[in-house]
Write a structure and sequence with these properties.
The protein is an alpha+beta fold and 291 residues long. It has seven helices and 14 strands. InterPro entries: Growth_fac_rcpt_cys_sf.
Length: 291
């Protein structure tokens, strides 16, 4: 026990624990990780950690700046929830760890991304449907190979952004933008359009793969009906080739999404949260069960 006596004290409340300890069930215990015990039962949360309002701390992995420390339960501006992981309704994440009010035109990035996806899938289908290995020049083979390598490299860089590292600028912004190819819809400020729970966001992210296949099927049907005037059976090879190429290109993204619920980060209080979704407790919440 480490007590801090107050000379001439007439009450027990005038005495408390010394620096580096806090009073727990009548005893002075050593200050836990993530806490700053200043003595006389004055306890603050250290920078890079968050508490749930009690003397139980979560490490703010990934971007520690969302947890500035200070009084118990404090989060960066605009943030709340477990480990300060969520932006409040009507706010979007900023690069400095805070959440700022959503700007006007929040639907624009989402619409532009959807159009870019449709155009990209159409271009892929058109290329594969017209591609002839026996006649086309070797340069076309090289172009398609380089494109696939570029997409794969971009996915790998996007995965780096999910690692438990506090990236410095401009790497943080670049990796955040590249994570879009891994179907990270948070980059598009979807939360400004409609707010979802973490488990719902994960399910939407997984469903993006299904929607991409649906879009490819739609493109195939329109292409056969309008360009070829029918004959689905004769042009199935283009559809299967397009879907195969799409699976090859986004294989890394699909694997990353599939293993995300099993990647749990330990915290000083003994709890574990999903690394990609810090507000979800591993094995202890319904959200994790859904994921």
């Amino acid at each position: 026990m480490r007590w801090m006596p107050t000379p001439g004290a007439s009450r027990a409340s005038d005495c408390g624990c010394g620096t580096g300890a806090w009073l727990h069930e009548g005893d002075c215990v050593e200050c836990a990780e993530g806490l700053e015990c200043l003595g006389m039962d004055e306890v603050l949360v250290a920078e890079g950690y968050a508490s749930d309002g009690a003397l139980s701390t979560f490490e703010c992995h990934g971007n520690k700046r969302r947890c500035p420390g200070g009084p118990l339960g404090a989060c960066a501006a605009g943030r709340s929830g477990l480990a300060c992981a969520e932006c409040e309704p009507g706010f979007e994440a900023a690069g400095d760890g805070t959440c700022v009010p959503c700007a006007g035109g929040s639907m624009v990035p989402l619409v532009l991304a959807a159009l870019a996806l449709v155009l990209g899938l159409w271009g892929m289908y058109h290329f594969i449907s017209k591609y002839n290995r026996a006649k086309d020049a070797l340069s076309m083979v090289m172009i398609s190979t380089l494109f696939s390598l570029l997409v794969t490299a971009t996915q790998h860089l996007g995965v780096f952004g999910t690692l438990d590292l506090d990236w410095a600028e401009p790497a943080r912004t670049i990796l955040s933008a590249l994570s879009l190819i891994n179907f990270d819809l948070d980059v598009l400020s979807v939360g400004c359009v409609v707010s979802f729970a973490p488990a719902t966001r994960y399910l939407i992210k997984i469903s993006c793969v299904v929607w991409v296949i649906v879009v490819m099927l739609t493109i195939h049907m329109l292409y056969v009906l309008i360009i070829y005037k029918g004959g689905f059976r004769e042009h199935n090879a283009a559809l299967f080739g397009s879907i195969g190429a799409m699976v090859f290109l986004f294989f890394t993204s699909m694997v990353t999404m599939a293993v995300a619920p099993f990647q749990c980060h330990p915290h000083p209080n003994g709890a574990k949260t999903v690394q990609s979704y810090p507000a979800v407790l591993c094995g202890e919440s319904s959200d994790h069960g859904i994921m």
